[in-house]
Design brief:
Elements: E1 10-12, H1 15-23, E2 31-35, H2 39-52, E3 56-59, H3 67-76, E4 80-84, H4 90-97, E5 101-106, E6 119-124, H5 129-137, H6 147-156, H7 164-173, H8 185-200, H9 206-211, H10 220-243, E7 245-247, E8 250-255, H11 262-272, E9 278-284, E10 287-293, H12 301-308, E11 316-319, E12 323-329, H13 333-342
Parallel strand pairs: 2-3, 2-4, 4-5, 5-6, 8-9
Antiparallel strand pairs: 1-6, 7-8, 9-10, 10-12, 11-12
Helix pairs in contact: 2-5, 2-6, 5-6, 6-7, 6-8, 8-10, 10-11
The protein binds manganese (II) ion.
């Protein structure tokens, strides 16, 4: 059955650039898929892998998108690299393009066009990366058994508004009714379950990647890890509510935790408090990881975080208006908080 798909409005990239990348694929292609570490990230990698048969898959955090990764990829000697759900710098993509053809499929706000002779950069806003990958690649072969994961990524990234027809069709396929903002039922349980399993296996995310099949069900081996993380998230929310500071009208809290639950926890907190800007900092050794949320979009989290870390060494931040993340050296934390008072 052919599914209804809403057409993305590409901010950067063109069908010609994408087609040219695809035309260069042969049976001698060595293709590596690189993607982010959340539900949209793993979804993008699965779609690329299912459509184009990746020889290797890398699920990477932003702190890992650096020259070390460039060298790891170079050593694998791929002919093609497909990167999804990661907002990238020109410098990084240029380095990769010296030894492979590169396709980037992303939905983060990009400040510049990365398209070049050996780089196809497909960027659209308002869609998750998994949907964009599926939109581009679903004609290659029938990978429709993965559509439920595409729908999960749309839900996870709060990007269902622009793909209503697609969502309704996916829910119908499972005998369910789609209502916007759905936060219950089988799709939602899969979104939270996969998200939590990825947090549990942060040191070995391929465990989650390999466990996920195209069956519309939470893999048995991931159920208990996901439940443990869910308990950690609930505890984090309780501690946030007890320990948060109000700084310049925003809510701020910093903590240390074994698992990376901050971004899920602050997303849940922000949906309960949509008019409040919420920031949560997780201190991990000498790195501070920050997540910022503002669900009513009265301020731009992408811009706010970039201002807060401006000029810090080994620091980066980016994302979207309602949600952004970043990292910086922990010894800059007091400066970070001082700036938060004044920005
Ligand atoms: Mn995403």
């Amino acid at each position: 059955m052919r599914v209804v798909m809403e057409q993305p409005l590409w901010k950067y990239g063109s069908q010609e650039g994408f087609d040219s990348f695809c035309a260069s694929l042969t049976n001698r292609t060595k293709l590596i898929a690189v993607s982010h570490t959340d539900v949209d990230g793993i979804g993008g990698a699965k779609i690329v892998d299912a459509a184009l048969q990746a020889d290797a898959v890398y699920l990477m955090d932003y702190t890992e998108v650096n020259d070390v990764l460039v060298e790891r990829l170079r050593n694998e000697a791929p002919s093609h690299i497909v990167i999804s759900d990661l907002g990238l710098k020109r410098d990084f993509v240029e380095k990769l393009s010296t030894f492979a053809r590169v396709l980037v499929i992303d939905h983060h706000q990009a400040s510049e066009d990365l398209n070049a002779e050996r780089v196809a950069f497909m960027n659209a806003q308002g869609f998750c990366a998994t949907y964009l990958a599926y939109f581009l690649l679903h004609d290659f072969k029938d990978i429709s058994s993965w559509e439920w994961l595409v729908a999960c990524a749309c839900i996870a990234d709060v990007a269902t508004n622009s793909v209503q027809g697609f969502m309704v069709a996916q829910f119908q396929k499972e005998g369910l009714a789609f209502s916007n903002g759905v936060k219950q039922g089988t799709f939602w349980e899969l979104v939270t379950g996969i998200n939590n399993a990825l947090i549990y296996y942060a040191e070995d995310r391929m465990q989650v990647y390999r466990a996920l099949t195209s069956d519309f069900v939470m893999p048995h081996s991931l159920v208990e890890p996901a439940r443990l993380i869910e308990a950690d998230i609930q505890e984090c929310i309780t501690r946030f509510n007890q320990g948060k500071e109000e700084i310049n009208g925003r809510w701020y809290w910093e903590f240390v935790s074994q698992y990376r639950v901050k971004s899920t926890a602050v997303t849940m907190i922000s949906f309960l408090n949509p008019t409040r800007t919420c920031l949560i900092v997780n201190i991990d050794g000498d790195v501070a990881h920050v997540s910022a949320r503002c669900q009513d979009r009265h301020e731009d989290m992408n811009i706010l975080l970039k201002k807060l870390i401006e000029g810090f060494p080994d620091a980066d931040a980016g994302g979207h208006i309602p949600a952004a993340g970043g990292h910086f050296p922990v010894d800059r934390l007091s400066e970070f908080k001082k700036r938060l008072e004044n920005v």
